[in-house]
Design brief:
The protein has 9 helices and 7 strands; from the N terminus they run H-H-H-E-H-E-H-E-E-H-E-H-E-H-H-E. The chain has a single domain, classed as 3-Layer(aba) Sandwich (Rossmann fold). The radius of gyration is 17 Å and the shape is globular. Helix 1 (about 5-25) packs parallel to helix 5 and helix 1 crosses helix 9. The longest helix is centred in the first third of the chain and has 21 residues, at about 5-25. The chain is of the alpha/beta class. A 7-stranded mixed sheet has the order 3-2-1-4-5-7-6, with helices on both faces. The chain binds S-adenosylmethionine. S-adenosylmethionine (SAM) binds near residues 61 and 68.
């Protein structure tokens, strides 16, 4: 992932987010560190679909700054393991939540086959060129019968607007074929529910404002903002949609 805009978005901003949370307080950590546009309703859908239960080992592939995994640990008592290739994001997750973090690419997960009870991969597939390699590797580490929860940005129509750099959005047909080819069974899918409550979105905004106040002049900040604006325009024109998906390793 050598694209400067993605490094800015996924690494620099993750570190700045952790700095801002440390200033503002712990209650900001989970909302601010959910950076795949997940929100409590989306996370609850995934958690219920995957039947998360206390003590189970949840591998979050492309965990970013760790918000979704920390949310799952707090609400469902799972034992998360985070996997994330970006070093500053890994440090941010460790600083904010003290969770175990593996710095690695999702296509080469340094865990034993069948050693994971359940996995999440949220907002990651569209940032990865070789999506099949990533999914095959998740399939390998999951126990037979285990669930994988996905949040995927799906292309509704050919994109006529600029896409965020480094992103490749699958169509629904491509995604379905990809999941089948990599050995998963699609169980359920729904559109992202949107609309986080104000208690959540206000904290996200406060952290964003703190990051902007401190870093607005940085090149990485401008690159990350441009990525966000491109996403915003694609969603506003319905060229892409966000999907929550529950699949199982048979
Ligand atoms: C949109 S962010 C989502 C982060 C997190 N899942 C969340 O929902 O807050 C996408 C994440 O995927 C990670 N990523 C990109 N390529 C990856 C790969 N090949 N393997 C694992 N993670 C990857 C990025 O570094 C980034 O942290």
């Amino acid at each position: 992932m050598a694209v400067a805009a993605m490094i800015a978005e996924f690494d620099d901003v993750a570190g700045w987010t952790a700095d801002a949370v440390e200033q503002l307080g712990d209650r900001y950590a989970i909302p601010a560190a959910c950076r795949g546009s997940s929100n409590p309703s989306a996370l609850a859908w995934l958690a219920e679909a995957c039947e998360l239960s206390a003590g189970s080992r949840l591998l979050d592939v492309g965990a970013g700054a760790g918000g979704p995994a920390a949310w799952a640990a707090e609400r469902f008592g799972v034992r998360p393991v985070l996997l994330e290739p970006m070093q500053t994001a890994c440090r941010a997750a460790a600083r904010l939540f003290g969770l175990p973090v593996i710095t690695a690419d999702g296509a080469r997960i340094p865990l034993r086959a069948g050693s994971v009870d359940v996995a999440w991969c949220l907002g990651v597939l569209c940032t990865v060129e070789d999506k099949a390699a990533l999914l095959r590797e998740i399939h390998r580490v999951l126990m037979p019968g285990a669930s994988l929860g996905l949040l995927v940005v799906v292309a509704r129509s050919p994109q006529t607007l600029p896409v965020p750099e480094g992103n490749h959005f699958p169509t629904q047909e491509e995604l379905g074929a990809l999941l089948t080819r990599t050995g998963f069974k699609l169980l359920e899918q729904t559109s992202w529910p949107g609309g986080a409550p104000l208690s959540w979105s206000r904290r996200v905004e406060q952290v964003r404002a703190a990051v902007a106040a401190r870093h607005h002049a940085a090149r990485a900040y401008a690159l990350a903002v441009r990525q966000g604006e491109r996403f915003g325009r694609l969603f506003a024109t319905e060229q892409v949609s966000m999907q929550l998906i529950h699949v199982r390793r048979p």
